[in-house]
Structures are given as C-alpha cells and as structure tokens.
Design a protein that fits this description.
By secondary structure, the protein is an alpha/beta fold. Helix content is 44%, strand content 13%. InterPro entries: Amidohydro-rel, Metal_Hydrolase.
Length: 254
C-alpha cells in the first residue's frame, strides 16, 4: 500500500483524488487547512491565501470550525486518513482530544503549528495523545527553528507512547532533524518539501524504519514526492517501508 503521509484538504476534493491516482497512491493522511493555495489564479489571490498560512504558522490564527467542516466532508471518501489539529491554548486539551479525535475515529493529531520558539506548547497535546497512543504530526519547516526541533525531541522522549512525526524533513534544519529522529525511537521524519534530493537520500539511509513518504499537497505534488523517494532508493523492503509500510504500521492499518 502506498500512503502519502502528509496532505491537506483540497478545493475541490476531486482534484486531490486525481493527483493521487496519477501518483499511484492508495491512501493519504489528510489534515484540515485554512489557506487554499490551489484556489489561487494569480499572484494577488495567492498572496491572500498565503496570508492565512502566515497567520497559522505564527500562532495568530483562530477559528478551527471551517477547517474541521471541510475535513469532515473530505473524509467521506475512504481513501483519506483523518488527522485533526487542536488548539494549543485550549483549556481542556485532554477532553478535546477525547471528544474530537478519539470519539470521532480520527487516526491522529496534526498538523500542529506552534509559533517559532514555541514547540513546548504541544506538551499538553502530546500528553493526551500518549494516553491513546495517537501519532502527532508537527510542522517542521520555517518558522520552526533548530531549538524547536530540540524541544520536540525532548518531549518525544518524555512521552514515547505518542509517536511524534516531524514534517517537511525539518525544513532548512534537516540535518539536525535527521540526527534527532535517528536518536529518538518514538520520532518519525516525513520527507516532503525537500530542498535538495540528497537530504531525502540521507534521511532514508540514517532512519530507514522511521521515514515517511509525503507530499504536503497542495504545496507539493504526490507524483514528484514519490519520484524523489524512488530516485534515491532501490526496489525492495526499504523503499516499500518508506512509501507506505511504516505509515501503515504507525496508523494501525492492515
């Protein structure tokens, strides 16, 4: 089974399904989203969409309801594997996780986007996730810092029952991300949006059992992301694990 471990709701959903078909991807982990860059038709409209992304990444975004509704609608298609992001400043994180994630049959939590220097804010979520052994996905590209990655590794060691996935290969701090994930057994590294192809090669070489193929669609492309993994691996067990085997184990899929 080929599993894209990182994708966001598309508008329309049918466009996303067509991308998965083209890439030969069976299923995709799906996160809710506020910005929709795929809606943009020119630079001005793209700037408007990206302003919503900037707000989310800086920790200024509010109002999860619309994103949750879009995600619920997309999850009516069983090719998608639902993850739910939760507010990091919620008063009752444990109750929220129980009601909105566990009771609704979501497979995990994410993509969490703490502000720069604020990775420690995910601790209550990670604590709640550990009670249910839920994987948690955290944004890894800028504005996430190297210090944030260090904090994530510390928290992962504190809550090893909640698998912690660093997305986007840790961004510009990819070498540090590889080291931290390699040395922290409860961490995983998702490989989307790599700037240079040998970062993907080295990540898989160092962490063959805990690296995950992902596209970060619509920001990335499933066809290109899969081709990158296949370019730096040989046919066989390691490639199969990266393209879906490890994700299937992590998500409890048969």
């Amino acid at each position: 089974m080929i599993i894209d471990a990182h994708a966001h709701v598309h508008d329309p959903v049918e466009a996303h399904l067509a991308l998965l078909d083209e890439a030969g991807v069976d299923r995709a982990v799906l996160f809710g989203t506020r910005p929709h860059p795929e809606r943009a038709t020119d630079l001005e409209s793209l700037r408007k969409e990206m302003a919503a992304l900037d707000a989310a990444l800086s920790g200024r975004a509010r109002g999860y309801e619309d994103a949750w509704r879009e995600l619920d609608a997309a999850l009516e298609n069983d090719r998608f594997i639902g993850f739910l992001s939760v507010p990091l400043d919620a008063d009752d994180v444990e109750g929220l996780v129980e009601r909105e994630v566990v009771a609704r049959g979501m497979h995990g939590i994410g993509e969490l986007t703490p502000p720069p220097g604020g990775a420690g804010l995910i601790e209550p979520v990670l604590r709640a996730a550990a009670d249910h052994r839920l994987p948690v996905v955290v944004h890894g590209f800028a504005p996430t810092t190297a210090d944030d990655l260090n904090t994530l590794a510390e928290l992962s060691r504190r809550y090893p029952r909640a698998p912690l996935v660093v997305s986007q290969l840790g961004g510009l701090n990819w070498m540090r991300a590889i080291e931290l994930v390699r040395d922290t057994p409860s961490m995983y590294l998702e490989l989307s949006t790599a700037n240079i192809v040998f970062s993907v090669r080295l990540a898989i070489q160092e962490i063959p059992d805990r690296t995950l193929f992902g596209s970060d669609a619509p920001y990335g492309d499933p066809v290109l992301a899969r081709a990158t993994v296949e370019r730096v691996t040989r046919p066989g067990e390691v490639r199969d694990r990266v393209l879906g085997g490890t994700a299937a184990e992590l998500l409890g899929l048969g």
